[in-house]
Write a structure and sequence with these properties.
Layout (H helix, E strand, L loop, with lengths): L2 E2 L6 H9 L2 E10 L3 H13 L5 E4 L16 E2 L10 H20 L3 E2 L3 E5 L5 H13 L6 E4 H7 L7 E5 L3 E3 L1 H14 L3 E4 L3 E6 L8 H5 L2 E5 L4 E9 L5 H7 L7 E12 L10 E4 L11 E4 L5 E4 L3 E2 L13 H8 L2 H9 L1 H12 L1 H9 L10 E13 L10 E4 L2 H4 L2 E6 L8 H16 L2
Parallel strand pairs: 2-3, 2-13, 3-10, 6-15, 13-21
Antiparallel strand pairs: 1-10, 4-9, 5-9, 6-8, 7-8, 11-12, 12-13, 14-17, 14-18, 14-19, 16-17, 20-21
The chain binds flavin-adenine dinucleotide.
Flavin-adenine dinucleotide binds next to helix 2 and strand 19.
């Protein structure tokens, strides 16, 4: 039975609803209690306090997947193509994130970040990143030389670095939980243990009846419980393509899971790292490369790598799901991606198993780090959208569908990094889009 975490429903009425198959009716149901779904639900209920909103989440708690398994970096917006949603929403989102944390007393550390060139051929790319960051209006950026690198990070070697003092760190699970609280305090309902498996137009209530007109879509979970609603917003991360497919909308772009494993520095070695230290990224990939990231609990994480995963929510090296595997290998886009990047993919796989190979990349920046100084740490799995030509979809994508159910849905199809940083800015864009499409 779905666990109602509270909301508009209360007392006996709530009990009745939980005992019946039809749990309740809502103007808008949001699928997915990750940081994006919660931020959007919070924004929508604040704009429309008289409407009934629900968030439906398959796990027992919010932020269980990507939003609770990430580097925790508040990105400043350097990397992204000027004019893209990613660029705009990251710069806006970082400012909103700092402001929100100040308002709510959520701890963060604006510890800054260096993107460090260790080879001469990386310098032109570093300079191009600097120009890009300026175009994106990232505050405080400057290029610094080897001496200044060592003043900021005494153990880090490099020829030149891009210094981004605006970058910070935060615990995004805490931020997401705070969004959930705001949503509930505004009267929203969060139903956990509610895995959406089906969405269809109501058959039993006539479209002319008041209920039929207002809440014509039935959303069912895998236990056979259901809610009815007027409109749906899906923010389902690693399952966003599947949610789109079951609602009758396009299954493409498909989601390809990329696992990222972290190493952690032993506590006695954490003095080696003061702020974030990143490589100059490989322009062929959307991932930023393995980096040194201090955490809010005082630990330091190294990583993450990017390995094609055989299970969408598989956090261990050997996790495997037959369904997820067959889904992936039956998609032509994946084969095109794999064939274009065989050597890179095999290299990442090798490094995932070999601690010393992973360390080799990191020692380019801090040569003092040895295998004795690190332990294997946690992992995260990125939901990366991939088109049928094998291209990784770079920008955030919001998309609706057609038909009875499809025209009542807005899908968040691709919300990779820095979507945690950008969550409040993304929420405003989603809320605008929901209002426009559904005339709320
Ligand atoms: C390794 C890693 C490092 C990252 N580092 C950073 C970083 O430093 N800074 C940054 O800004 N971003 C970072 N990101 C990206 C960021 O974490 C994600 O972009 C963000 O968390 C996406 O949030 P989301 O709500 O879209 O997805 P998720 O957090 O994955 O939430 C989706 C939710 O939908 C639920 N769901 C799925 N299917 C169903 C269903 N059928 N029914 C009900 N519920 C369903 C899931 O259980 C899940 O809770 C990182 C990501 C990873 C993986």
């Amino acid at each position: 039975m779905a666990a109602a975490l509270r909301g508009r429903a209360g007392g006996l009425a709530a009990l009745w609803r939980l005992q019946s198959r039809r749990l309740s009716s809502f103007d808008v149901a949001v699928v997915g209690a990750g940081i994006v779904g919660l931020a959007a639900a919070r924004e929508l209920i604040q704009r429309h306090p008289s409407l009934a909103f629900a968030v439906l989440e398959k796990e027992q708690e919010p932020a269980h997947h990507q939003s609770g398994h990430n580097s925790g970096v508040i990105h400043s917006g350097i990397y992204y193509t000027p004019g893209s949603l990613k660029a705009k929403l990251c710069v806006q989102g970082a400012a909103l994130c700092y402001k929100y944390c100040d308002q709510k007393g959520i701890p963060y550390n604006q510890c800054g970040k260096l993107i460090v060139a260790v080879e001469h051929d990386e310098i032109p790319r570093l300079k191009a990143l600097y120009e890009r960051g300026l175009q994106n209006n990232v505050p405080g950026l400057k290029l610094i030389g080897a001496k200044e690198i060592q003043e900021k990070e005494p153990f880090c070697r490099g020829l030149m670095a891009l210094d981004s003092p605006y970058t910070g760190i935060v615990d995004y699970k805490q931020v997401a939980q705070s969004y959930a609280r705001d949503f509930q305090e505004a009267g929203g309902t969060i139903l956990t243990d509610f895995e959406v498996t089906n969405m269809e137009m109501a058959k039993e209530s006539s479209p002319e009846s008041e209920d039929g007109l207002k809440y014509p879509v039935i959303v069912r979970n895998k236990k056979g419980e259901e809610i009815s609603c007027g409109h749906i917003l899906t923010c389902a991360g690693l399952h966003s393509d599947r949610l789109s497919e079951i609602s009758g909308c396009s299954p493409e772009p498909r989601i390809v899971p990329f696992r990222g494993d972290y190493l952690v520095l032993k506590p006695e070695k954490c003095y080696l790292v003061k702020g974030n230290i990143y490589p100059v990224p490989n322009p062929r990939f959307p991932f930023l490369g393995v980096h040194f990231t201090p955490r809010m609990d005082g630990s330091v994480w190294l990583g993450p790598n990017a390995v094609l995963a055989f299970k969408r929510e598989g956090y261990k090296l050997l996790d495997f799901s037959t369904g997820d595997f067959l889904d992936a290998v039956s998609y032509s886009g994946l084969w095109k991606l794999v064939l274009r990047n065989v050597s890179y993919g095999l290299g990442e796989l090798y490094r995932a198993f070999s601690l010393s190979a992973q360390l080799k990349q990191l020692q380019k920046f801090i040569p003092e780090v040895t295998t004795n100084d690190v332990l294997r740490g946690p992992s995260g799995v990125r939901a990366q959208a991939l088109d049928s030509d094998g291209n990784l979809v770079d920008d955030f994508v919001f998309d609706g569908g057609t038909g009875n159910v499809g025209s009542r849905i807005l899908h968040v199809r691709n919300a990779p990094s820095p979507a945690a940083t950008s969550s409040l800015a993304i929420a405003a864009v989603i809320a605008d889009e929901v209002e426009r499409r559904f005339q709320l």
